[in-house]
Amino acid sequence: MLRLGTLLATGGLAAMVPAGIAGAATRSDGNQVTKTYRGHSSPGFDQWAYIDFDVPPGVNRISVTSSFEPFVLVPGVMSNVLDIGIFGPSGFRGWSGGARRDFTLSAADATPGYVPGPIGAGKWSVALGPIVYKASGMDWQVGVTLDYGPPLQPVPYDTLPDSIRGRADDWYRGDLHLHSVHSDGARTVDRMVADARESQLDFIATSDHNTSSTGVSWHGNVPTDLLVINAEEVTTRHGHWLAVGLPQGEWVDWRYAPGDPGALDGHVQRVHSLGGLVVAAHPMTPGPGSFWEFGLDHVDAMEVWNGPWTLDDAANVAVWHAALSLGKRIPGLGNSDAHATTDTIGLPHNVVHASALSATAILAALRQGRSYAAESAAVTVDLTASGAGRTAGPGEELPLGLFDPVDVTASVSGAPDTVVTLYTEWGTMASTAVGAGGSGRLHWRGWGKASLFARAEVRRLRPGSSTLDQMVALTNPVWFYGADRPPYAVERRVLFQSTRRADGTWTSMRPLPGTDVDPTFAGVQVSAAGMPDGTVQILGLKPDNSLWTATLNGSALSRPWQRLDGPGRQQDFTAREAAVTALPDGTSQLLATGMDGTLYHQQRRTDGTLTGFRSVPGFTPNSTWGATKISLAGMPDGSAHVLAYHTDGAMYACMRRKDGSWTAWTRPAGFGGAPTFAGPALAVAGLPDGSSQVVAVGLDGCVYHQVRRPDGRWDGFAPLAGVDSSRMGASSTDIAGMPDGSAQVVVVGRDGNVWHNIRKDDFSWTGFARIAGPSGIDPFPAGQVRITALADGTARVLGISAA
């Protein structure tokens, strides 16, 4: 901040002028006194300046004008701005940022963004927030006018009620992020209320930038059918946050940075003491000042969907999912952030299960995560998880024992031509298409503590303004453990390996070496391919969804971990799923699904170079394929068999021929005459005779197997027998085709441990046996398991530890 200069007193307007600011001669006009100040600000974004002036007794109005040197660096994104506001002897009196250049205030009235009230005698300050992109700086000018006269009479404001009568325990819809004429919005509060009614909302929050004036502007227009919650969007230069549920007239400061000791924490504690909710707003928006730099430790919730769906929102959801996977219980919210009258209030909004339509009950439910976000009032999502004799919904706990099954159901209505997808921290578990009628239901069965949580998304597979799809709804997670029993940490999800020798004995489980900065590799997914030279190529997804590859030779890495670029050599590529397979000529093929579900393919040459990811063809010419789970197998003739759950939830298969062309996608029949097969896991392996074998986990949580003959015919799915039951329950599975014509299968069983089985060349099974952990005796608990065959008849098992 600029230091204060010499006290000047001229013509009844005495000013404390900061260094670098010059005050021109005062102009008097009867009962009005005006003084003009000129200044210059250096280039910068996070800077503040203040013009202090004394107001003598008898002044009943203050008016301020401003102007500044225009400059545009990036149209619509980076240009010179002079934010303005004012503080009086008693503190904050208004802020309009860059939305206005002039304002006035008195006891009887004030420009929107400014708080009416008595003009007290004493020191006042015009607060300036210069945002300067011009290298030579920015000149600016501010005029301050004092009007003398008898005191004006204040107009009292109406108190917003805490609740709407007669509304008990139910689901309520509301938008917490709205802007009016009191900041940079175009709506009056009356228009805001009318448009919220039109969107069929039950509650709204008025959250204008850095001002409390909205809360004191209600005069005879408080609605009786719509709950209005007072709020503020605290717009710092290092990220924005919503203070929701503030008492009317309360104001929260914004002039601090992440490095300032206790700055954010102190304001958060104050908001909490007032009963309010703290929400990180549009945290991944890359615009200057919008990107969230304060971390998520002090906020109650995170705005993961802000206005019409864009790439920013996709990034928000990815960061949020990563936080959930770390066990951080931070609710995700969706708000419209509507400014213009053409912005739709309620696109999106939150659907909250609260005990009453009251500010207290709504904020309590949002803090717990008892909500989901939807694009309109037509969309309804019912997510429930049942297990151990209990049922829970979003934001609730369903503590499970090691052997307890959990059934998760997502029912959707009002969402025609969409796809419903279920996620856990291990990624996509199941998906199903919703037809033109708009209603659909997805069911998935998991086991014990194989997952920490489950949440659902509903997407429309049509391009948005900057994305390949559009979000329609997303829920907060159902948690599968008690808050007093922390989950296993993601840092403990270490990648382990073990080898099954040709004689049937096993080496002990050992962690794989990590990257240069990590002793071991921690991740959420892994895929492996046994190469003809005896090495194993590995693909791994870290918790941030970055995609890495390495080559394992014995127990050491012959090629260290290297992060893979995405399509078009995108260096920050993130993926949901990845798979790799080896071909007889020493090359390998890789598949990866982008965060939007698009499936990509590339080859790795024998010298280790990569051809680059390219999208896989879809059903029709020039279309692309979308997938939630993928697997591929190298075949003896140099082709590759690709197996995937499509975004419609069904299993499909195709072949990539040796010449690089693709066959059409076909859909294998399900078990017991069902037209399709769907589930959370699948795997395919090629056999020396040109056949391939498939294992998959169905929506009932059980493992199924079938053979695809060399001529393309399928034998049909059959369940695999469990250790002490007719069917083997599992959350993850993989299969490897061995040189002798047998196939080896691994699963993460319903007890959370890794199990192994062999389908011999006479089609009989040895039965499942448990694989030991690092001790050589204790079982190995895992979240995901993979197996690959080597030419010498050994098999390499890789598992991601879950304990």
From TrEMBL:
Gene3D superfamilies from the UniProt entry: Fucose-specific lectin, Metal-dependent hydrolases
Which InterPro entries does the record cross-reference, listed alphabetically? PHP_domain (IPR052018), PLL-like_beta-prop (IPR058502), Pol/histidinol_Pase-like (IPR016195)
Residues in PLL-like beta propeller domain copies? 532-775
CDD domains registered for this protein in UniProt:
PHP_HisPPase
- Among the Pfam families in the record, one is DUF8189
Q: Which UniProt keywords apply?
A: Signal
Molecular functions (GO terms): 5'-3' DNA exonuclease activity; 5'-3' RNA exonuclease activity
Superkingdom of the organism of origin: Bacteria
- Signal peptide (from-to): 1-24
Question: NCBIfam families, from UniProt?
Answer: CehA_McbA_metalo
Protein name from the UniProt record? CehA/McbA family metallohydrolase
